[in-house]
Amino acid sequence: MAEWYAVLQAAQETSTAAVRPGVTAEEVDAAARRVIDDAGWGGHFIHRTGHGIGLDTHEAPYIVAGNDLPLVPGMAFSVEPGIYLPGRCGARIEDIVVCTEDGVRTLNEGPRELVELAG
């Protein structure tokens, strides 16, 4: 689990760094997928990278392949790549971000390191 959790951390950081005006929603999704695919875990990333944050739980902009909507300043959305092993476990690392005039602002700063508990 520690191996693919490190992949998730890299995917989340890479896709967040891709956020800036003019970049499309699908490009942010692709940034996360490249990291996960390159590490050999692509078949276990089974959902979109993120979704808009506003009045509803899930709303546009959807950060997913096929959404060619360009990001504009003020758009707020999640960046939450995940890896899921059927019947075993799964994880995602989620931040809420806002596209700004010159890039991205992350609204939360919670810990991202893997915490291992002895059983």
From TrEMBL:
Q: Can you name the source organism?
A: Blastococcus brunescens
Q: InterPro entries per the record?
A: Creatinase/aminopeptidase-like (IPR036005), Pept_M24 (IPR000994), Peptidase_M24B (IPR050659)
Which Pfam families would you find in this protein's record? Peptidase_M24
> What is the name of the protein in this document?
M24 family metallopeptidase
**Peptidase M24 domain: from which residue to which, for each copy?**
2-101
Q: Where would one find the signal peptide in this protein?
A: none
Xref: PANTHER family: AMINOPEPTIDASE (PTHR46112), AMINOPEPTIDASE YPDF (PTHR46112:SF3)
SUPFAM superfamilies linked: Creatinase/aminopeptidase (SSF55920)
